[in-house]
From TrEMBL:
<dbReference type="InterPro" id="IPR024705">
    <property type="entry name" value="Ssp411"/>
</dbReference>
<dbReference type="InterPro" id="IPR004879">
    <property type="entry name" value="Ssp411-like_TRX"/>
</dbReference>
<feature type="domain" description="Spermatogenesis-associated protein 20-like TRX">
    <location>
        <begin position="42"/>
        <end position="208"/>
    </location>
</feature>
<dbReference type="InterPro" id="IPR008928">
    <property type="entry name" value="6-hairpin_glycosidase_sf"/>
</dbReference>
<dbReference type="InterPro" id="IPR036249">
    <property type="entry name" value="Thioredoxin-like_sf"/>
</dbReference>
<dbReference type="GO" id="GO:0005975">
    <property type="term" value="P:carbohydrate metabolic process"/>
</dbReference>
<dbReference type="GO" id="GO:0003824">
    <property type="term" value="F:catalytic activity"/>
</dbReference>
<dbReference type="InterPro" id="IPR012341">
    <property type="entry name" value="6hp_glycosidase-like_sf"/>
</dbReference>
<protein>
    <recommendedName>
        <fullName>Spermatogenesis-associated protein 20-like TRX domain-containing protein</fullName>
    </recommendedName>
</protein>
<dbReference type="Pfam" id="PF03190">
    <property type="entry name" value="Thioredox_DsbH"/>
</dbReference>
Length: 794
């Protein structure tokens, strides 16, 4: 309904979109005042963003978003053309080649508009505002996101990719080419400026009304009573109805990994018994099966880089066979969390192999030498050195002849059968609009080593050895002969927060059977957290800055930067029990509340700071998208901190944050999966465990810690360890001031502000023991698992 209203503002028969298609009418006389012509110059090179800087050689005179560009638009009374994208975006690069490198288009943009290039990863606030507009007025969205806005920043017209003069892309029905859009909009603004301003102001007001309605859950302090545990059952039923039983995942093509959905499904059976009873034990088991099946299918599909490491952003096909090849930090960090939980629940060595694979990708390819993780790798690259034109997936695809030349006649048939390599390629023509994949193969595992052993008449161990050697040869060839895709080497706080938490948990889980890798992964998480604290945090004001690239950027952190970093720091504390990480998380939580919390409205966190400039619409991030909801994550953080710090004010804020999205969550609970742990916590409370380790040798405390480290995520809970160095935590939590100071090992169980001391006998354990030592063949599998080739017939 919102879309229909915005497509034809105020009941008019046609909106601006229709005007662009059909032409304009009712011209008004415009007085032509002679004034000095402003000559714009390209300022993209002044940005810290690699994506924006990459446009510095365009003939388009790109300006930097901010005071100067907006003041210039107002002085010249021009529309701003705001183009938003990111480094790894394939269609962003296509539009640059077709349009932004075109002299004719550049001349129009430079003479009639103020062109502004924005990196969505640097300014997600601007991206969200105008994405809301484009989705509401066109019914869809994506990147590149292109919007024409008035000098007052009100949106006039927008869309995503528009074909340029040199385009060979088949246009969609009724799609207007970019040159035509520029011609008509420049004329419409010149001759019908008043109408443009009136329509855009009305659209903006409707967007504000819609945003307010969407997060209305009663006034602050009210609501949330209707958010019952039954919502988890409803969300689970929705996921079950859209589950692809054949290929895993949800829905059809294009298909995304959706870590938030998978995490929800894996958690269901780990909640307290009352939740499992509501959902049904059988349905909880089926939910876990859906998630594990999806994880295995993705791990074997083309979306997974089998020669290197990591996962691409999404698959063009339903069977995960053909990805869009960009790799994102936020995807891989979330998937590390999910594959770790999948392994802990299934004890499947294949999933453990993927855990190592992703952790290796984060700590090598995406790792900054002094700490922190880079943002992404591009989809497009040169196929070989000396080429002049980039192709999508060029770094990752193979011909049959290349396999033969690199692997030789003995190994090649086995690797080709394993990875589905054929002479004419394995990409269907309908998925190859630009003929980039003719005779090319995207590697995907289609056969288990045991099956290949039978086919080729050899022992399974020999097949595994051949696959391992073949992968090493392919990797060596790829690294030496091909040109690696572009790396977006900026460090984004929010995504680093997710990676810190995932690596910290991974290090804790594998410590018992792989102490070397455990130390490496945990060390990388600590290094990243330290880097952010040293370079992107102003301790005097407790303020985060969002990005670092060759120095700190000017953009202050958004609500998601605080949310995901706080979550990562809590995970890091529970992996190291170093108070300083919990202390910092507490400071950041106070800052997030003071800067972003809606204390005057319906609760929850705005995405932008209360005093952020040039923000025409303050939004609250509620639904899970490619990243978990900022508010869902914040609610979990608040509950966890309230438990470990015994701070009721945090629990109250958590409940109010959940209540802020009550109306939407009741209608579409499956879109708010990251809120579900907090909904359960709001009804059942949290259980916190505190172990104070004394000087005498007592294995019960260590056993409790090990049990916690091996537990998959389920309901929200906390775990703390006290020792002689836990001064800050004892001062912050009054319940712990005198606990364990007698030098004896003690275990405290806290629920809803009430604590009881537990006996130290082993049978009194709170957390169900999760034995990793009973995996049997895992120790033998580890060398192969680290190479990512373990496959089981499941």
């Amino acid at each position: 309904m919102m879309t229909a209203h915005l497509r034809a503002v105020d009941g008019e028969k046609q909106g601006l979109g229709q005007v662009l298609k059909d032409g304009y009418s009712e011209p008004v006389q415009v007085s032509e005042e002679k004034k000095e012509k402003v000559i714009l110059s390209n300022r993209a090179g002044e940005s810290k963003s690699p994506y924006v800087r990459a446009h510095s050689s365009n003939p388009v005179a790109w300006q930097i978003w901010g005071d100067e560009a907006i003041a210039l638009a107002r002085k010249e009374n021009r529309l701003l053309f705001v183009s938003i994208g990111y480094s790894a975006c394939h269609w962003c690069h296509v539009m640059e080649r077709e349009s932004f490198e075109n002299e004719e288009i550049a001349a129009i943009l430079n003479d009639s508009f103020i062109p502004v290039k924005i990196d969505r990863e640097e300014r997600p606030d601007i991206d969200r505002i105008y994405m809301n507009f484009v989705q509401a007025t066109t019914g869809s969205g994506g990147w590149p996101l292109n919007v024409f806005v008035t000098p007052d920043l009100e949106p006039v017209f927008g869309g995503t990719y528009w074909p340029g003069p040199t385009s060979n892309t088949t246009p969609f029905e009724d799609q207007v080419d970019f040159l035509g859009i520029l011609d008509k909009l420049s004329t419409v603004w010149k001759e019908q400026e008043e109408r443009c301003r009136r329509d855009s102001a009305q659209i903006l007001q409707q967007l504000k009304n819609f945003a307010a309605e969407g997060t209305f859950g009663g006034r602050l302090g009210e609501g949330a009573d209707g958010l019952d545990i039954e919502l988890l059952e409803e969300a689970n039923q929705h996921f079950a109805s859209t589950f692809d039983k054949k290929n895993g995942g949800f829905g059809s093509a294009p298909k995304f990994p959706t870590p938030s959905k998978l995490s929800f499904l894996l958690r269901l059976g780990q909640y307290p018994p009352v939740v499992v009873d509501v959902i049904g034990a059988e349905d909880c088991h089926k939910a876990q099966d859906m998630a594990i099946t999806s994880l295995r299918k993705m791990a074997r599909g083309g979306i997974h880089d089998h020669i290197g490491n990591g996962f691409a952003r999404y698959s063009v096909t339903a069977d995960w066979s053909l990805p869009h090849f960009e790799k994102m930090l936020y995807d891989n960090a979330q998937l590390l969390h999910v594959y770790l939980d999948g392994f802990l629940l299934s004890r499947d060595a294949e999933l453990l192999g993927v855990v190592y694979d992703i952790a290796t990708y984060l700590t090598t390819t995406l790792a900054h030498p002094t700490g922190g993780f880079y943002s992404s790798e591009d989809a497009d690259s040169l196929y070989k050195r000396g080429d002049s034109e980039k192709r999508e997936g060029a770094f990752y695809v193979w011909t049959k002849r290349e396999f033969e030349n690199v692997l030789g006649p003995q190994i090649e048939p086995i690797l080709s059968a394993f990875f589905n390599v054929s002479e004419h390629g394995n990409v269907e023509p309908e998925n190859d609009a630009h003929d980039e994949f003719i005779d090319q193969n995207v590697l995907a595992i289609v056969s288990a080593p045991s099956t290949l052993a039978s086919t080729f008449g050899m022992k399974e161990e020999e097949v595994v050895r051949i696959i391992k050697e073949g992968k090493a040869a392919l990797l060596a060839h790829r690294e030496t002969e091909r040109v690696r895709p572009g790396l977006d080497d900026k460090i984004v706080v929010s995504w680093n927060g997710i990676a810190i938490g995932a690596l910290a948990r991974t290090g804790a889980v594998i410590k018992g059977f792989d102490p070397v890798k455990s130390e490496e992964y945990l060390g990388s998480a600590i290094k990243a957290a330290s880097f952010i604290q040293d370079n992107l945090y102003d301790e005097s004001t407790h303020t985060l800055y969002r990005i670092w690239r060759e120095g700190r950027g000017d953009t202050k952190g958004f609500a998601d930067d605080y949310a995901f970093l706080i979550e990562g720091l809590i995970d890091l504390y529970e992996a190291t029990f170093d108070d300083k990480w919990l202390h910092w998380a507490d400071d950041l939580q106070k800052s997030q509340i003071s800067q972003f919390y809606d204390s005057d409205g319906s609760g929850a966190f705005f995405s932008t700071h209360f005093s952020a400039p040039h923000v025409i619409l303050r939004l609250k991030d509620g639904m899970d998208t490619s990243e978990p909801s900022t508010n869902g994550t914040s609610a979990s953080n608040l509950y966890r901190l309230s438990s470990v710090l015994n701070d009721d004010s945090y629990a109250i804020k958590a409940k109010q944050t959940v209540a802020g999205f009550e109306s939407e969550t009741l209608q579409y609970p499956w879109l708010f999966a990251s809120f579900m742990p907090s909904i359960v916590a709001g009804h059942l409370g949290l259980k916190g465990v505190v172990v104070s380790q004394g000087e005498e040798k007592d294995d019960n405390g260590n056993k409790k810690i090990k049990e916690f480290e091996k537990a998959p995520r389920g309901g929200l809970g906390t775990f703390a360890r006290l020792d002689n160095g836990s001064t800050w935590l004892r001062e912050r939590n009054e319940l712990l001031k005198g606990f364990g100071v007698d030098g004896k090992t003690r275990i405290l169980i806290c629920e809803n502000g009430v604590c009881r001391e537990e006996g130290t006998a082993s049978e009194a354990g709170l957390i169900k023991e999760q034995s990793l030592e009973g995996l049997g063949d895992v120790a033998a599998a580890l060398p192969e698992v680290e190479e990512g080739i373990a496959v089981q017939d499941k």
